[in-house]
């Protein structure tokens, strides 16, 4: 299985790394952790649910991204993750 | 009609989310030149999520798609049709490209306004047909690509470029469309920006594109009718109504129909911009 | 003729500096200051403890202070501004005694009133003559005005001038020799690059540019720019961009300001030289143009912190101030402003002249981005009150302007002139539409510090992070 990295570590962006996992695992590093960790985790979970991806490890390195950015980066990551892993199988 | 058009890259969150605060009359989210070929999908997802979550009620947001002939053209059009966006900016516009876009719009049951970027020598051979096209709301000059196509250095005083500018203005005005000048590419050169603005006004452009937010204010102020001209326009208009005439003298100057029409257009433009407010 | 020492050991012996001592410092050499660290080295060497230190500001270069803190040698720390590793250390570990965060005017008042009792003041002196006369405009480490060191020199029990430049004679000294007890000549008192670390430029960041333009439009709309008015912008990037608008306006409309006060930059000097402002009242210089101007131009006047902002001083310059432009890390619904900590309870600075000028100026305008990354500027309640809302009139952000309901007059003037004014609640909600509502974590570790207004009344407390 291939890990996928999308996004950047620029201000207001986030970097999402998706890799294979037996269960859903979300790791969040954020410069606004105290104020927004629950909201960020929620967006990540919802996007995974909507896209029907469950067995994956998500690493989100957040530099103050708004919800739309997290959602968009997740969607790109999921699309690329599927594409890469379809090629392999 | 917009005075200023601000381009923002579709893949930079920091710039996207602030695009509406710089008082540009129109924001153009870019999927084309400012997005590298490997990040087109990232940019589409970001633009999609941004416009869905933050549809801007006060500033129209257009999306510059990738040109006909690129892998992304169809995908981009589909995306824009599904978005709360005001319209499309089409690079490398040609009559063919507009027809293809029209077909895709029909297939998507969508009809959006289009600004075409005129940036090839070929486009100038059919500039009237482009300007006349029913989708077209305005023409934007793409001076950089056009200059490359022509093998010239873009800049003030290049005769071929200014000839192209004049052709664009003539074609746009002939079909009551907007004529939008190419952005100033010198980011921190205020003098150059002012010179370009002055030329654009002199040549009859109705607005100017910007690739840097700090250029918007100068463009807005320049394309806002100045108070003296506006005052005079109001007097001309009022006197024509008072006299019920299209031919009279005011301050020793003969006023006729075209002058009155120009005065009315100026007043209308000022009213429109007043609602948005000058920024300084 | 004063006694001239060649090293600090002799001074420490002569001045009998030991545990429990109260020592003060000024910060005009900013991030290039070598004086504090030289003294700290002595204190460490002599294993002194239970110290009370009064540096007017603390910069990243002050590693000597960090070492003293790590050894637990500092009992009380009284200052106006803290940045760098000392700020981080205090946030984590606090202090055995009290951290007192003052304003520039408040520090001067407390020294004069002997509330701050200083045994020995160490004056970083760019140039000294044999009589002990001190100036900041000459010497290898010239820094211009010595405004924040003047009260220390007058009111400390003993005053040591550290210098790397001894001149034959100094005319019109900023600190007269009669206040100086000892002179110490060292290799160097500061590094030029660090001294100019305050150097800033008008912001080119588009959000900052927008805020500055709106602030200028507001000032103009309120009719505050007229012959004989006065203003202060300080040296922040957005503030300097507002200053650039003011500069252009004065030139184009042939208006002349009476004075600009506070920290002075090349941009203010240019206005003086173009005859657009009558006087500069300079409590600290930010760049070499300001230093040169202070040396050469008699309308560029160095003032002490007391003459700048001491509330007990009836001649203080800022009591006549028309408009002040200030920054903010947080603003709350009551218009309280925080520039001491960020929203996550990290120390990021301090009042400096913030609360002083806000209280005295006829109109106080805060300029700050509504969102920094995802962190909203406006909160229900600021983490730390630096300047109380009663002294704050307008808030200008990139997405709108709010005016304190207390200033009905200003709100009416805006409405009459077609400038949109939002309530601060509306502005906060505008930010939340982008960021979401931040979860407020309450930082109530151990209370180790207090923020004072300039009369010495406590405004708020500082807590360790856990």
What characteristics describe this protein?
heterotrimer, A: 89 residues, alpha+beta, Ribosomal Protein S5, domain 2, four-stranded mixed β-sheet, 2 helices, 4 strands, 46% helix, 27% strand, B: 280 residues, alpha/beta, TIM Barrel, 2 domains, eight-stranded parallel barrel, two-stranded antiparallel ribbon, 12 helices, 10 strands, 48% helix, 16% strand, disordered C terminus
What does this structure look like?
By secondary structure, chain A is of the alpha+beta class. Chain A has a single domain (4-88), classed as Ribosomal Protein S5, domain 2. Chain A is built from 2 helices and 4 strands. In chain A, strand 3 (25-30), helix 1 and strand 4 (56-62) form a beta-alpha-beta unit. The longest helix of chain A has 22 residues, at 67-88. The relative contact order of chain A is 0.29. Chain B folds into 2 domains: 4-223, Phosphoenolpyruvate-binding domains (TIM Barrel, Alpha-Beta Barrel); 227-276, no CATH class. Chain B is 48% helix and 16% strand. Chain B contains 12 helices and 10 strands. In chain B, helix 9 (190-203) runs parallel beside helix 10 (216-223). Mean pLDDT of chain B is 92; it is low at 276-280. Chain C has 466 residues and is of the alpha/beta class. Chain C has 2 domains: 3-197, Glutaconate Coenzyme A-transferase, CATH 3.40.1080; 206-438, Glutaconate Coenzyme A-transferase (3-Layer(aba) Sandwich). Chain C is 30% helix and 23% strand. The model of chain C has no long low-confidence stretch (mean pLDDT 95). Chains in contact: A-B, A-C, B-C. The interface between A and C is medium-sized, with 14 and 13 residues.
């Amino acid at each position: 299985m291939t890990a996928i990295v999308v996004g950047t570590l620029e201000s207001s962006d986030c970097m999402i790394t998706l890799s294979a996992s037996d269960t859903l695992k979300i790791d969040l590093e954020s410069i606004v952790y105290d104020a927004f960790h629950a909201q960020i985790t929620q967006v990540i979970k919802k996007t995974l649910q909507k896209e029907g991806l469950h067995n994956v490890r998500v690493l989100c390195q957040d530099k103050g991204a708004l919800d739309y950015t997290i959602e968009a980066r997740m969607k790109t990551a999921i699309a690329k993750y599927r594409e890469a892993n379809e090629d392999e199988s | 009609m917009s005075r200023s058009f601000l381009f923002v890259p579709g893949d930079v969150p920091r710039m996207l989310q602030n695009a509406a605060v710089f008082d540009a009359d129109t924001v153009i989210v870019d999927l084309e030149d400012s997005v590298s070929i490997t990040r087109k999908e990232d940019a589409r997802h970001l633009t999609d999520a941004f416009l869905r979550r933050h549809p801007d009620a006060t500033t129209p947001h257009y999306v510059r798609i990738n040109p006909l002939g690129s892998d992304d053209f169809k995908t981009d059009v589909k995306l824009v049709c599904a978005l709360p966006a005001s319209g499309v900016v089409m690079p490398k516009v040609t009559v063919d490209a507009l027809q293809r876009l029209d077909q895709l719009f029909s297939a998507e049951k969508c009809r959006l306004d289009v600004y075409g970027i005129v940036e090839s020598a070929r486009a100038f051979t059919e500039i009237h047909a482009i300007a006349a096209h029913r989708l077209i709301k305005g023409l934007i000059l793409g001076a950089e690509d056009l200059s490359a196509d022509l093998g010239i250095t873009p800049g003030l005083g290049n005769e071929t470029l200014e000839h192209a500018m004049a052709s664009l203005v003539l074609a746009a005005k002939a079909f009551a469309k907007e004529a939008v000048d190419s952005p100033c590419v010198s980011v921190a050169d205020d003098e150059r920006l002012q010179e370009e603005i002055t030329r654009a006004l002199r040549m009859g452009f109705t607005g100017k594109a910007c690739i840097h937010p700090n250029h918007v204010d100068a463009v807005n102020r320049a394309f806002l009718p100045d108070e003296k001209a506006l005052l005079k326009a109001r007097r001309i208009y009022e006197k024509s109504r008072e006299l019920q005439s299209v031919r009279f003298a005011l301050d020793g100057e003969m006023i006729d129909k075209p002058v009155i029409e120009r005065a009315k257009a100026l007043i209308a433009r000022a009213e429109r911009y007043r609602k948005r407010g000058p920024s300084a | 003729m004063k006694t001239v020492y060649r090293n600090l050991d002799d001074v420490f012996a002569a001045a009998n500096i030991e545990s429990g001592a109260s020592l003060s410092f000024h910060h005009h050499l900013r991030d290039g200051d070598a004086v504090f660290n030289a003294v700290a080295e002595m204190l460490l060497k002599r294993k002194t403890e239970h110290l009370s230190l009064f540096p007017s500001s603390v910069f990243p270069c002050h590693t000597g202070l960090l070492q003293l803190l790590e050894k637990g040698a500092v009992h009380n720390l009284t200052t106006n501004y803290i940045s760098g590793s000392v700020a981080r250390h205090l946030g984590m570990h606090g202090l055995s005694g009290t951290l007192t965060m003052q304003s520039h005017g408040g520090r001067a008042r407390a020294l004069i009133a002997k509330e701050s009792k200083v045994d020995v003041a160490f004056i970083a002196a760019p140039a000294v003559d044999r009589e002990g006369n001190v100036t900041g405009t000459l010497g290898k480490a010239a820094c211009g005005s010595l405004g924040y060191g003047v009260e220390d020199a007058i009111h400390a029990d003993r005053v040591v001038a550290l210098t790397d430049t001894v001149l034959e004679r100094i005319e019109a000294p900023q600190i007269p020799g009669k206040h100086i007890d000892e002179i110490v000549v060292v290799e160097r008192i500061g590094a030029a690059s660090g001294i100019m670390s305050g150097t800033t430029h008008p912001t080119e960041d588009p959000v900052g540019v927008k805020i500055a333009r709106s602030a200028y439009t507001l000032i103009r709309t309120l009719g505050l720019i007229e012959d004989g008015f006065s203003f202060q912008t300080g040296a922040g990037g957005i503030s300097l961009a507002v200053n650039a608008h003011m500069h252009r306006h004065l030139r184009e409309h042939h208006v002349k300001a009476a004075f600009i006060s506070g920290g002075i930059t090349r941009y203010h000097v240019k206005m003086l030289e173009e005859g657009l402002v009558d006087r500069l009242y300079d409590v600290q210089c930010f760049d070499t143009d300001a230093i040169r101007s202070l040396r050469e131009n008699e309308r560029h006047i160095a003032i002490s912190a007391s003459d700048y902002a001491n509330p007990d001083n009836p001649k203080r310059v800022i009591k006549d101030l028309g408009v002040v432009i200030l920054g903010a890390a947080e603003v709350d619904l009551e218009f309280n402003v925080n520039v001491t900590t960020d929203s996550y309870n990290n120390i990021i600075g301090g009042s400096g002249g913030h609360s002083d000028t806000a209280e005295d100026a006829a109109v106080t305008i805060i300029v700050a981005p509504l969102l920094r990354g995802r962190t909203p500027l406006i909160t229900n309640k600021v983490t730390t009150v630096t300047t109380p809302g009663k002294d704050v009139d307008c808030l200008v952000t990139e997405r709108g302007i709010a005016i304190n309901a207390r200033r009905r007059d200003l709100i009416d003037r805006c409405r009459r002139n077609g400038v949109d004014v939002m309530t601060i609640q509306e502005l906060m909600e505008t930010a939340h539409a982008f960021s979401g509502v931040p979860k407020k974590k309450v930082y109530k570790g151990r209370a180790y510090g207090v923020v004072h207004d300039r009369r010495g009344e406590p405004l708020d407390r500082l807590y360790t992070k856990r």
